[in-house]
């Protein structure tokens, strides 16, 4: 059972509003330094310190930090809310005065649970059971060890459990549901736009339905236009029940989905004319194409690679630089130039050591055969093979190098949105491989190469394997030297590889990207990583990583491969989130272009 760290404090009231807090302080005498603690609606796990000074009320937000400490904005961090209040009782440190007298909860007053408090425990257990296939003591241990990250993850999807959330429906369908039954002012629902996945609020006022776009900034916070920002959708909704924050009125009754009434899509024949004299016309339902993301518009430097792709390239067409881009057991990768009929292009040349044995040459030829079959803008294409003084694989050049190294050395000028864009491109490349029945088996940030800061390509197909049309997975004969920290449980335990195991690796690669080239599992060794995963534990979210992206990582790390999303779903999730943070935020117009009453 999850317990609020403030639950034992006699001056903690739980989820009460500002006005209710002020009422309690009034009844307690309004003496200077009188204070109470309540749950913060704006930030997850945070509190608000409400206090009195000179017969006036003062409210201070207490935020929970990424490292688990608590602090008032601009103040010192503290281990918990109790320690924080104890500190400010001795030193005001920026408050109007020090805390002098707690406003104790009356004996007959219980701590009021917030909307999420009533759902959290069941959602945690449901998530851990479905995602990691754990029950009993193993489930409890997993929840305890990952409590902070799991609660944040669960909170970001808690709106899906609310009776006012109607999922992906059209504006017209939202209106139909609001007009069904009684139509009091403030009746509302939240829906997701089918075309972009962004959220919208539809509400009733004066027998007219108004629509508002819920904005989401680059940090993942939600708000109404020019309104207060919240970590989650449900926090925003709870706040709008108390304050209109730009809406025509506060939110009132929830419009609950009525499954039995789904077959009666009847809008009223005529709508009552609102006070401003405008009658909104019916809304037409239109089909919309899949949303376009910034990545869809990026120019591939190899805009027509088939013009230069030949399986056998003559040696006299290659100029090889002495600059090495990388090396390995096979040999090295050098920078070079390929002469074509239309000029010269920069290429990367994988040069096999002359003393390598027959097996290594066969492996390189197999890689060449695999890469020659692949043609996608987000996969490093093989342009050809050259057999001269050495066997050479000629590939597209990605001059910005591996993703992990680039991010670690350019942390200050690569934004989170930039990383989301790059990882979306990786998901598109992997979706292509999935459709072609290829498993990569070595997807990692070191094998994602950047053409420039905005364009990524997947590379290194040395471990790739083509699946038969009817095969779901490939079983390796031996373990060999494998990148275990990127491997799914079924790869480690049973040597089984599939697109679903590549999805697990995509989760690890995403973690590397959002930690700006961090090393997964820190200093753990292979057996320790295996035990860590089997216990139900997962890596914590990188600092500053959007909750939606960490939620996707956790989905990728679903223990059972059959329960993991495929790359089609992963790419859709990435596309939806990228669109939501890339679209210039502007309020959605109300039905019929009527202006909301301010």
Helix/sheet category: alpha+beta
Q: Helix proportion of residues, in percent?
A: 25-40%
The whole-angstrom Rg is 29 Å
Looking across the biggest beta sheet, what order are the strands in? 4-3-2-1-5
For the report, how would you describe the main beta sheet?
Answer: 5 strands, mixed
Number of helices: 16
Percent strand equals 15-25%
Please give the alpha-carbon distance between the first and last residues: 43 Å
How many strands appear in the DSSP assignment? Answer: 23
Shape: elongated
Give start-end ranges of low-pLDDT stretches.
Answer: 261-292, 303-307, 466-471, 584-598
Q: What is the averaged pLDDT score?
A: 81
Features:
598 residues; alpha+beta; five-stranded mixed sheet; five-stranded antiparallel sheet; 23 strands
């Amino acid at each position: 059972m999850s317990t609020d760290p403030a639950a034992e404090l006699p001056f903690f009231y739980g989820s009460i509003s500002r006005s209710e807090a002020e009422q309690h302080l009034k009844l307690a005498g309004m003496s200077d330094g009188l204070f109470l603690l309540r749950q913060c609606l704006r930030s997850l796990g945070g509190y608000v310190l409400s206090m009195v000074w000179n017969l006036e009320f003062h409210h201070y937000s207490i935020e929970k930090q990424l490292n688990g400490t608590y602090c008032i904005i601009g103040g010192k961090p503290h281990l918990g809310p109790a320690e924080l209040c104890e500190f400010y009782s001795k030193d005001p440190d920026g408050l109007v005065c020090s805390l002098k007298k707690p406003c104790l909860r009356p004996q007959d007053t219980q701590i009021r649970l917030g909307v999420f408090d009533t759902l959290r425990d069941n959602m945690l257990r449901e998530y851990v059971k479905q995602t990691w296939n754990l029950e009993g003591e193993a489930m409890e241990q997993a929840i305890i060890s990952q409590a902070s990250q799991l609660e944040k993850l669960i909170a970001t999807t808690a709106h899906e459990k609310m009776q006012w959330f109607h999922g992906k429906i059209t504006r017209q369908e939202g209106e139909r549901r609001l007009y069904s039954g009684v139509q009091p002012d403030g009746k509302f629902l939240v829906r997701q736009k089918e075309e972009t996945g962004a959220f919208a609020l539809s509400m009733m006022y004066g027998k007219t339905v108004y629509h508002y776009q819920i904005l989401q900034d680059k940090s993942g916070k939600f708000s109404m236009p020019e309104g207060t920002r919240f970590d989650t959708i449900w926090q925003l909704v709870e706040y709008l029940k108390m304050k209109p924050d730009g809406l025509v009125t506060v939110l009132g009754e929830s419009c609950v989905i009525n499954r039995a009434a789904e077959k009666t899509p009847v809008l009223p024949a005529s709508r009552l004319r609102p006070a401003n004299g405008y009658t909104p016309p019916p809304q037409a339902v239109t089909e919309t194409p899949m949303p376009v993301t910034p990545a869809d518009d990026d120019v591939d430097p190899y805009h027509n690679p088939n013009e230069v792709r030949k399986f056998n390239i003559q040696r006299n067409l290659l100029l090889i630089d002495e600059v090495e881009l990388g090396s390995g057991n096979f040999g090295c990768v050098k920078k070079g130039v390929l002469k074509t009929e239309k000029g010269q292009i920069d290429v990367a040349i994988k040069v096999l050591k002359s003393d390598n044995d027959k097996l290594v040459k066969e492996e390189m030829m197999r890689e060449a055969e695999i890469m020659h079959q692949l043609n996608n803008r987000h996969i490093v294409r093989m342009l050809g093979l050259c057999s001269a003084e050495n066997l050479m694989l000629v590939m597209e050049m990605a001059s910005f190098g591996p993703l992990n190294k680039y991010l670690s050395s350019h942390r200050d000028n690569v934004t989170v949105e930039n990383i989301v864009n790059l990882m979306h491109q990786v998901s598109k490349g992997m979706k292509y491989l999935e459709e072609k029945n290829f498993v990569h088996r070595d997807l990692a940030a070191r094998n994602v190469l950047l053409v420039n800061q905005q364009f990524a390509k997947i590379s290194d197909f040395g471990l790739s394997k083509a699946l038969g049309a009817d095969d779901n997975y490939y079983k390796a004969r031996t373990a060999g030297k494998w990148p275990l920290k990127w491997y799914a449980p079924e790869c480690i335990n049973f040597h089984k590889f599939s697109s679903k195991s590549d999805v697990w690796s995509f989760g690890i690669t995403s973690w590397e990207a959002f930690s700006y080239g961090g090393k997964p599992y820190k200093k753990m060794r292979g057996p320790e990583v295996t035990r860590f995963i089997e216990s139900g534990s997962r890596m914590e979210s990188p600092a500053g990583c959007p909750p939606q992206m960490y939620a996707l990582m956790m989905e990728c790390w679903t223990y059972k491969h059959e329960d993991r999303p495929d790359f089609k779903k992963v790419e859709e999730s990435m596309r939806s989130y990228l669109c939501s943070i890339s679209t210039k935020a502007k309020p959605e117009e109300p039905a019929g272009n009527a202006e909301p009453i301010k």
